[in-house]
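User: Predict structure, ligand pyridoxal-5'-phosphate.
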Amino acid sequence: DISLSPRVSSLKPSKTIAITDQATALVQSGVPVIRLAAGEPDFDTPAVIAEAGMKAIRDGYTKCTPNAGTLELRSAICHKLKEENGISYTPDQILVSNGAKQSLLQAVLAVCSPGDEVIIPAPFWVSYTEMARLADATPVILPTHISEDFLLDPKILESKLSEKSRLLVIGTPSNPAGTVYPRKLLEQIAQIVAAHPRLLVSSPHVLSDEIYEHIIYAPATHTSFASLPGMWERTLTVNGFSKAFAMTGWRLGYLAGPKHFVSACGKIQSQATSGACSISQKAGVAALGLGYAGGEAVATMVKAFKERRDYLVQTFGELEGVKISEPQGAFYLFLDFSSYYGTEAEGFGLIKDSSSLCRYLLDKAQVIFQGVPFMANEMKVERGLIERHLSGWSN
Ligand code: PLP
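Assistant: Predicted complex:
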């Protein structure tokens, strides 16, 4: 549409939505589709958290909060970041938003100017590149390999940095590969970041997306980039409640960083959405009150995710031609089906790429995968059913 801004025209439409629409049509016609596409825990929000939200409504706690979030929640977030992540922030260095997605977008908008480069290791959460485009910046993708568990090679980072580099996005644990960056690798990345000329100005250059920090499988452990020596000033830390606390619909996330940048993000938010939902913020305080790393409630969900991961890694491991890197965190499995590309599937035609493979799998086995990755979060479906579906396309 020529009446739209070029900013919108350059945005990529979501492939997930296209295949989800196809699946919805199938479900409506009575086909039992197994959905392995949306990044949502299938658990209910833990009762204590939900009750805090309901109490907020009953108490009439339904008015606007400060733009940056309530002092109560920001103080609880500071306490969490200190205790669990070893990073010290004061409440004026925290901005609570309507989900980590908003926190990330505002950070990209606040830091990047047109023409700046946003460095993103692949495989990446699809919104990172589009957020860069919304800021008129250019996404620069760093390749990684399944044989190295998708860990970023510091040499590749070094080779791709230019005078236009402005922001490096690190998601750990990552969506979609479940990659957990070991502390040693983060230290190597920190050294490169510290040596880059554009980074000599004291401003943040690393956007650290830690939304999956609690969904992690031993022996992997989470390291916050801002906790590394010299990195506090250079890092914007993003986290939220959606994944660990099964609170995707409550829309609550946050950004922590040097005050100047957090205030800039707050300025954007004040003109876009204002403070996050008052009810959700009360629920967020209750979530952080569950104890270290979310206590028992979160541990129970992580245990279930781990069982599902093990089951899927084993099941897909038995398929010919499929390469797997066992995810160390998050609840996704990122499979390499490339040996199927260029082959003919009976009754379907050419499997050109991941998109046509996804269409084929939906057609043939009623399993919905996202464009490339898929999530292991709908495994409450009876296992036998999944096995029957899988056996439909394994040969
Ligand atoms: N970051 C990553 C890597 C994600 O996968 C998601 C959600 O899918 C988000 C951020 C955003 O989370 P929310 O906006 O629900 O807090």
